[in-house]
Amino acid sequence: MDTYELLTRNTDEVVVEDEVRELAQDPDGKRVYVGYEPSGVLHLGHLLTANKLIDLQEAGMEVVVLLADVHAYLNDKGTFEEIRETAERMRAQFLAYGLDEERTEFVYGSDYQLEEDYTLDVHELELSTTLNRAQRAMAEIQSGETAKVSHVVYPLMQALDIEYLDLDLAIGGMDQRKVHMLMREELPDIGYEARPVLHTPIVADLTTGDGKMSSSEGVTISMEDSAEELEEKVNSAFCPPTRDPEGDLENPVLELFEYHVFPRFEEVVVERPDEYGGDLTYESYEMLATDLESGELHPADAKGALASYLDELIAPGRDVLSEMRA
Amino acid sequence: MDTYELLTRNTDEVVVEDEVRELAQDPDGKRVYVGYEPSGVLHLGHLLTANKLIDLQEAGMEVVVLLADVHAYLNDKGTFEEIRETAERMRAQFLAYGLDEERTEFVYGSDYQLEEDYTLDVHELELSTTLNRAQRAMAEIQSGETAKVSHVVYPLMQALDIEYLDLDLAIGGMDQRKVHMLMREELPDIGYEARPVLHTPIVADLTTGDGKMSSSEGVTISMEDSAEELEEKVNSAFCPPTRDPEGDLENPVLELFEYHVFPRFEEVVVERPDEYGGDLTYESYEMLATDLESGELHPADAKGALASYLDELIAPGRDVLSEMRA
């Protein structure tokens, strides 16, 4: 696979192609980041990004995971000490999942976000960014009554993080794209360089294929699911025999194969008794999706294989989590 | 004069009376503040506030003058070092004008506004204050296109200053009232006490009596005016023989007597040749205003006296300024 393809596969958006192509010329030692508010248990959303980070490490890049303890503190997630304990569990799960420890730096927001230079730069950006522009970057559509001042300040801090962490590339879900566009427009106004960004896809709700899989609503898959729980969740997933269901619906089983399983395994074997045709072996997502559409691969068999591969991916992190809690 | 009257005379608004009455019971050692972006030359706006501060010192209070160097820095007023030089000139002029050096503390914003605790508290307030509420506190009506993110953050910093400077009372012009109302509503949400506030009046434009006297437009009187300049400016002032001119107009000559001269002098003598009735002596503003309205005091004579008293008030600061520049 060529380097640009490795960097950009399974992304929904590349901002902008020229800059990422230039990065692909010499990715060795270049720094890419993702930021999270510390969470005790990783879910598929984290792991989808982690798959992308693993691709980038394979290309030679260094990964920076920002553990946003300042924001967690402000959101009443505990004392800084408690939040650091949560963040340490997060770190252990990422490494167990497959991030290369030698090429992964975990940084706390409090390491630099409360220092004078950073604070002055936040104020500089507040002064150079119109309120209208910042409102357009707010993470979700906030009505006038519920939007807080923090909703227009946090995007500016995210922009500055990209400068202060000395990055060459940023990664985020599609829900981060407005913040990253603000970063690209506003950083140059205070003398810093805009950085390219890759946006990872949003996986559809597992049970309905409608909207997005969320850690707060509906069924999610997390690092603490047992093999049995995984099997149960995947078995009740929405999986019509097509990659393009009616209306706005998606096929979440295919999405999980595409974004979670194939990037991590050379081949996928769907086990079947000989009487039903015997095992099927796929070397690419395309082949599996084609067979599901043609009827060659039954949704129930696809689900069985998916649950088993997800379990294999999750098992090391699940073990670490249970050791840390023991 | 009773203490409550001394604390509140020549103010346009007391927020709220009960709290200031309680302060008046035991004002000794209580702390009051005013904040300014450092300016090299004081003008009448500064001095009107200073008159109020002198009243409060007379009642036993300690004055804190916040020299907002961080904001000046962000507004491109120079390096921190250059801004401190400007601020030192400001300090010298305030002391020359009559603030009691023993009871006046000059504090730089950079002494605490870039520290971790303060920065965290700014973020707490950003999180607890709705964008709508903060927009209502913006210093001036900003259109959607010109308002910056800083316009919703600065009022929160002003609120926190009142906590961090450990104050019992805040002072500001009427243009600060929205910010102070925000302070009273929002500080308790993050566990701090709201403080009472006194708002000083706005003096009308000197030449027209319309709108407000401004340091950026129209004629202003400043600490560097010579006796001749003062005389010239006051002589061309709007001064109809009434304290209540038509429409929205004000009589700025009477306002200057009321807010600038009478608070600082036991009596005011208007010198007149014997052939025009000889000197007039006033022990109160009311007496002088009554005579102007009745025709007993001619506007031209009132202006002559005003220029002379303003010169007496300004002379010490003017001298200090010229020494510092020599």
TrEMBL record, chains A, B:
The biological processes this protein is annotated with in GO are: tyrosyl-tRNA aminoacylation
* Record's function text: Catalyzes the attachment of tyrosine to tRNA(Tyr) in a two-step reaction: tyrosine is first activated by ATP to form Tyr-AMP and then transferred to the acceptor end of tRNA(Tyr).
User: Motif 'HIGH' region at which residues?
Assistant: 38-46
| Catalytic activity of the protein | tRNA(Tyr) + L-tyrosine + ATP = L-tyrosyl-tRNA(Tyr) + AMP + diphosphate + H(+)
Annotated residues that bind L-tyrosine are located at Y33, Y154, Q158, D161, Q176
Q: Which family does it belong to?
A: Belongs to the class-I aminoacyl-tRNA synthetase family. TyrS type 3 subfamily.
Q: Write down the species.
A: Halovivax ruber (strain DSM 18193 / JCM 13892 / XH-70)
GO terms under cellular component: cytoplasm
> By what name is this protein known?
Tyrosine--tRNA ligase
PANTHER family for this protein: TYROSINE--TRNA LIGASE, CYTOPLASMIC, TYROSINE-TRNA LIGASE
- Molecular function (Gene Ontology), one example: ATP binding
| Compartments, as annotated in UniProt | Cytoplasm
Identify the keywords attached in UniProt to this record, alphabetized: Aminoacyl-tRNA synthetase, ATP-binding, Cytoplasm, Ligase, Nucleotide-binding, Protein biosynthesis
Q: What class of enzyme is it?
A: ligase
- The listed location of motif 'KMSKS' region is 212-216
For this protein, the record's SUPFAM superfamilies field holds: Nucleotidylyl transferase
Q: Which NCBIfam families match?
A: PRK08560.1, tyrS
Does the keyword Lyase feature in the UniProt annotation?
no
Tell me what gene encodes this. tyrS
Q: Name one Pfam family in it.
A: tRNA-synt_1b
Q: How does it assemble?
A: Homodimer.
List of residues binding ATP: S215
EC annotation from Swiss-Prot or TrEMBL: 6.1.1.1
Instruction: Report if keyword ATP-binding is assigned.
Output: yes
